[in-house]
Amino acid sequence: MSLPPPTFARLHLGAAYYPEHWPEERWPEDIRLMRKARLTVARLAEFAWSTLEPTEGEFHFDWLDRAISALASAGIVSVLGTPTAAPPAWLVQQNPDLLAVDESGHRVQFGNRCHYCVNSPEFHAATRRIVGAMAERFGSTPHVIGWQLDNEYNRVCYCDRCRGLFQRYLAEKFGSLDALNRHWSTRYWSQTYSGWEQIPIPIGPHNPGLMLEFKHFVTESYRKFQRLQLDALRSHLRPGVWITHNFMGWFNGFDHYVLTRDLDLASWDWYVGTGHHDYLTSGAKHDLTHGFKRRNFWLIETQPGNVNWSSTNNTLNKGEARAMAWHAVAHGADAVLYWQWRSALGGQEQYHGALVDQSGQPRPFYEEVQQLGRDFAVASPLLSSSAVVSDVALLNSYDSRWSIQWQRHHRDFDYVAHFNHYYRPLAVRNIAADVISTDAPLEGYKLVIAPALLVLNGSRATRLRDFVERGGHLVLTIRCGMKDEYNALLPSRQPGPLADVAGVEVEEYYALLEPIPVAGEWFAGTSRLWAERLKVRDEASTQVIAHYGVANGWLDDQPAVTVHPHGEGRVYFVGSYLDDASQQSLLDRIVATARIEPVMETPVGVEARKRVNAEGVEVLIVINHTRAKQFVRLPWPAREHLSGQSVEGKLKLASYGVAVLTPLT
Ligand code: GLA
Ligand code: ZN
Questions:
Q1: Ligand 2 center to 223 CA (angstroms)
Q2: In the listed set 593, 621, 644, which residue is the last one of a domain according to the structure?
Q3: Is the CB–ligand 1 distance for residue 640 below 6 Å?
Q4: How many domains does the chain have?
Q5: Which residue, 57, 149, 357, 403, is the most exposed by fewest CB within 10 angstroms?
Q6: Is the same domain home to 421 and 559?
Q7: What is the pLDDT of residues 132-186, one digit of tens each?
Q8: Which of 534, 561, 593 is at the close of a domain?
Q9: What confidence tens digit (pLDDT) does each residue in 566-602 have?
Q10: Cβ of residue 46 lying under 6 Å from some atom of ligand 1
Q11: Closest ligand relative to 103 C-alpha
Q12: Which of 21, 269, 272, 311 has most ligand 1 atoms within 8 Å of its beta carbon, as the pocket-test mutant?
């Protein structure tokens, strides 16, 4: 289920372009090459503060104006970045105190990026000035279609000012020290606070309540910083011009649902780093970004062959990046932009992949982008204003993730890996799933999965209960329903307020040294890392799907996986971390019972996804993510748009081949 389709008129292909790195005489050649590859968008200015404002209040915008115009005359639109991730040397010299302070109390050094304290008033003033001036100058420029704020928010500051603001944030949130002390159980280890100024910023392990609130404070700090930029921009923008920020997939420095609320569009930066991409888990990152606004997004940066920052910066195989671009589109991306067009001769990223090399000539990878340019030109009319549609939602909760990360209980228990353990069996069957906030509406879904939804409050529980009552199928898993929103244990057994709808409660949880046996009618396998011993509350109607075998004695013969009817729907409780084959069998059964159909059946390694456009046409995108050729049986005679051919019966996909299909009428 998704919101109405977005209004982008086309599928965009582009690159980050830094004309300020090059003499202006070079620009026409760059633009000619961009045009030759059919790039339609360039991303400009995001780190150009020292060029745009070389001294306080002296703005040099003409060069950017000329770059935008030159691109526009080649049919290339621009997205402008606000340059605040790179506060210039003169600004830092005037306000040394705007540099962030790290955990050990040292000021960070100037000369990398994001070296600012996100709460510095001097930095805020300088941000307002540069963003306001850019907004006045470029807000109504016809060929600027969107803006990106800052770059990959990530820095956490530990300065005294941030500490003071954190204390103020707590005072506003809790109202009284009594309330704070109660929620955080501060009698424990004599942590009781009698003054707000006593409360530290947590460094390393600390009181779980304090740690969670600090994450909320960091989120709030970035939200305010972002608001300041939004306020400086919005009133100057032509109608239809959007504002985004480039997020980083599963990065967890703050709550992305809070930050994306104020933005028009979600976008993200996808890098593989070392190795190759795994479509069965990278899809979750696209779907996560899709879920920020619950509509199409931009892949605003991606890897042109190789990066420079990983342990081994291998290059993606020939054809792999094209398959990755189509994978992004298949999951709802309306644009794919490579980072970057050409590496600067100096600076920290000299060895990063690019489309053009140090000599100014296209690199071999440019060919692949040219092919994508042709692809997108053909497919754009078909796919613009189209949306992905899913019957399944996976709930993502930053609070739960943080809480688990700080108290893993088993060193290998990783929230995202466990999340993917539920995503992958769906992806391998070509079943689309939205990844959404635990607080998002659930209407329209047939199946909702809540992997390790540890933090459960009353309103979340009520919405899940309603969903099931109306006929939805809900999957609760290990570590669900353990804590309240202050990161305190709930005074009830798991899954807390959902125990009655689940028909079971968790009597005990166990971190496992070795996998233990779990078996039932649907599978016979093992549980690894973790096992919960379930107690059936409603004997009459709870079905035990699987029991533990001989394990630590406590778990022997106890229920491991159950299902319980509630209202029109049903609730599964999965108390095990099943081996992959058993997990696949379990999810296959759950999906079939919920009457969810795959997009199409394909061999493993081949992905099939669907986008539905404004005319109701279903566009099937089939991607071979392997180096071997593959064959897929088509459910209907189709037109393959990239080749312009008709296909019936068997579709042949070359190594990393892609097909974009609509039924032949
Ligand atoms: C990040 C940044 C880019 C660039 C790339 C390199 O995503 O946003 O500016 O540094 O990494 O991979
Ligand atoms: Zn600070």
A1: 15
A2: 593
A3: no
A4: 2
A5: 57
A6: yes
A7: 999 999 999 999 999 999 999 999 999 999 999 999 999 999 999 999 999 999 9
A8: 593
A9: 999 999 999 999 999 999 999 999 999 999 999 999 9
A10: no
A11: 2
A12: 269
Average pLDDT of the residues of the chain: 97
Rounded CA separation 267/302 (Å):
11
Residue 291: name the closest of 171, 386, 157, 433 by CA.
Answer: 433
Burial 219-235 (b: 16+ CB within 10 A, else e): bbbbbebbebbbebbee
Burial grade of 187 (CB within 10 A; 0-12, 13-18, 19 or more) = exposed
From ligand 1's centre to the CA of 304, what distance in Å? 11
User: What pLDDT, in 10s, does the model give residues 630-660?
Assistant: 999 999 999 999 999 999 999 999 999 999 9
**Six-digit token string for 618:** 């279903």
pLDDT for residue 3: 37
- Cα(400)–Cα(403) distance, rounded to whole angstroms? 5
Based on the residue annotation, tell me whether 505 is a catalytic residue of this protein. no
> Does residue 458 sit in the same domain as residue 577?
yes
Ligand 1 pocket test, candidate residues 299, 339, 351, 352, most atoms within 8 A of CB: 339
Whether residue 205 lies inside any domain: the answer is no
Helix axes 208-234 and 121-138, enclosed angle (nearest 10): 30
Q: Which residues constitute the domain of residue 643?
A: 606-663
29 flagged as catalytic: no
Angle between helices 398-406 and 208-234 (to 10 degrees): 140
Is the distance from the beta carbon of residue 368 to the nearest atom of ligand 1 less than 6 Å?
no
Q: What is the CATH number of the domain that holds 451?
A: 3.40.50.880
Tokens 């899809």, residue located: 283
- Token look-up 């609509």 returns 662
> CA 66 to CA 58: how far, in whole Å?
18
Distance 82 CA to ligand 2 centre (A): 21
Do 581 and 613 share a domain, yes or no? Answer: no
Is the CB–ligand 1 distance for residue 152 below 6 Å? yes
Percent of the chain with pLDDT over 90: 98
Q: Tokens standing for 520?
A: 């039932």
Indicate whether 542 belongs to any domain: yes
Please give the distance, rounded to the nearest whole angstrom, from the Cα atom of residue 172 to the centre of ligand 2: 19
Query: 38 CB contacts (<8 Å, ≥6 apart)?
Result: 13, 370, 373, 374, 376, 377
* 501 and 622 housed in the same domain: no
Q: Note whether 564 and 443 are same-domain residues.
A: yes
Residue 212 counted as domain residue = no
70 CA distance to ligand 1 centroid (A)?
A: 25
What's the angle, vertex CA 165, arms to CA 109 and CA 154, rounded to 5? 45
Residues 577 and 506 in one domain: yes
Report the CATH number that the domain containing residue 615 is assigned in CATH: 2.60.40.1180
Helix axes of 62-73 and 121-138: crossing angle, nearest 10 degrees: 40
- pLDDT, tens digit, for every residue of 364-384? 999 999 999 999 999 999 998
Closest ligand 1 atom, CA of 46? 9
State the maximum Cα–Cα separation within the chain, in Å, rounded to a whole number: 80
State if residue 271 touches ligand 1 by the CB under 6 angstroms criterion: yes
Tell me whether residue 53 is in a domain.
no
Smallest CA-to-CA distance from 301 within 261, 330, 341 is with: 341
> Are 526 and 631 within one domain?
no
Could you say which ligand is closest to the alpha carbon of residue 339?
Answer: 1
Same-domain pairing of 587 and 613: no
